[in-house]
Amino acid sequence: MDKLNTDTKYRASIYLRLSKEDGDKSESDSIGNQRDLIHHFLKDKPDIEVVSERIDDGYSGVNFDRPAVKKMIEDAENGVINCIVVKDLSRFGRNFVEVGKYIDQVFPALSIRVISINENFDSINGRSQSDNILLPFLSLINDAYLRDISIKVRSQLEIKRKKGDFIGSFAVYGYFKHPENRHKLVIDDYAADIVRDIFKWKIEGQSQQRIADKLNELDILSPMEYKKFCGMEYQTSFQTNAKAKWSAVAIGRILKNEFYVGTLVQGKRTTPNHKVKKTVTKPSDEWIRIENNHEPIITNEEFAIVNELLNSDTRVAPHKTEVYTFSGLLYCADCGNQLVRSSVCRNGKTYFYYMCGKNRITKKCTSHRISDTAITDGILVALRQHIANIVEMERILKYIDTLPYKSTNVKKLNVQIISKEDEVKRYEHLKTALFENLSDSILDKNEYLRLKYVYDEKQQSAELAITNLKQEIDKLIKNRTEETLWIEKFKLYQNIDTIDRKIAVNLINKITVYDDKRLEISFKYQYNFDLALSFIQSMEKEISPRNKVKEAV
């Protein structure tokens, strides 16, 4: 590099940078310390006049996408400055390639004098042989240091995610960061009620757009505005209006967010490396999911119902604000397509009916046409009967719980456990004796190993039997309340006269319509229903000599 003119009066810009992301030590690398060091250095250099001070506080040196450094380079290109002073080259940048390009090509071409105090480098003196070796080496070290810091930070974040620590900048709408532990979240009662309303309205048949409109009509602050209202410095480039409003997209995000059932999902996005800031979405099987991580706002059942609805075709009819009662629940028995609602006008009266969607569009299936009234009446009758069966089932289950067979069986199983525990102890003694025989040379090593293997196998079998027996006891003595919570959900609707959207989506999975107008209804919790029925039938056999269950029935 050619020497710069030593008679030039230099208009210098001092450049200061600090970044916790780069692992800078706050004391030695603080902006104040950098400034003091540079001014002290320039004290006896009257040929250098400081005309500007450029500061990038909080910006990583991994690239040159920093406002102050860009402004400084612009000044250099425009001739506003002809000298740059930094504490060390790592302040200017930690990217080996980029720093080398500016030091070796750009600044010499612009006749810019560069002074790096800690490296004792001043471009006016040209490069000594040692500089030619040392400066690229230092840049390389700075680059490697940043890579090392990046790996450590990523590793620490990964550990936090796996521990269930929330590492987002802002809490999810409906929660606050815990005042004493910012990695834990607590429910924000006000916003949580809004979230519950959103799920409730969706279950009742309202579209995402209608829910958004309703919240805007009620002047409920959108998540973005609520953050600002709470004093958070939240900014986004997506905001186009002065005041952000609720939208169907925002409602959809809330309805699909597992966070509201207590599941923390993090690590969805990443960057290819520490030099590339563009984020990419990771495959879902690489996300970190921690269930039951925090207090839920929505039950798993509500979340499942809503997301089933979101996956169904439940578009709102024109000029309506809510979907029809059975939208997304009716299916053709032959082709499996959803039934669609239509109307016909006869003698001045409008009649509504459902028909196969495939038939309506392509005629490649039969019509499966059935009136809205027939559907509603048929389902109402079936639902009432199903609820009556469940109520009767509950009565029998309660009766079974009062029978003495349970304590008798528990005692029987306890005796078996004691027997198996004795068996385990016996094999322990046998293995001890075996070892003593080996020590006394009564057995050789092969005989010892063969017999020990046999005893180990028998001991493990006995231990497994103990585990299974204890599980049997748990099943017998477990409070049945948890197992029968689903019954309460049906009992809420024991005396219904009509079916609305909420009842339909809460109690019915699917309604299959046959061409001869038969209906096949799949109710919610069918697995639990079958399990309870199977239990009752098995108990009937168990106690049949005494006909206890039959007496109860």
Descriptive overview:
The radius of gyration is 37 Å and the shape is flat. The protein has 18 helices and 17 strands. Residues 547-553 have low confidence and may be disordered. Helix content is 49%, strand content 14%. It is α/β, with parallel strands linked by helices and 553 residues long. The strands form six sheets. A five-stranded mixed β-sheet has the order 2-1-3-4-5, with helices on both faces. The protein has a three-stranded mixed β-sheet with strand order 12-16-17. The chain has a three-stranded antiparallel β-sheet with strand order 13-14-15.
Chain-wise SSE layout:
Elements: E1 10-18, H1 31-42, E2 48-57, H2 67-77, E3 83-86, H3 89-92, H4 96-109, E4 113-116, E5 121-122, H5 129-163, E6 175-177, E7 185-187, H6 189-203, H7 208-217, H8 223-229, H9 248-256, E8 264-266, E9 269-270, E10 280-281, E11 288-290, H10 300-311, E12 330-332, E13 339-346, E14 349-356, H11 357-362, E15 370-371, H12 372-402, H13 405-439, H14 445-477, H15 485-491, H16 501-507, E16 508-513, E17 519-523, H17 526-542, H18 548-552
Parallel strand pairs: 1-2, 1-3, 3-4, 12-16
Antiparallel strand pairs: 4-5, 6-7, 8-11, 9-10, 13-14, 14-15, 16-17
Helix pairs in contact: 4-5, 6-10, 7-9, 12-17, 13-14
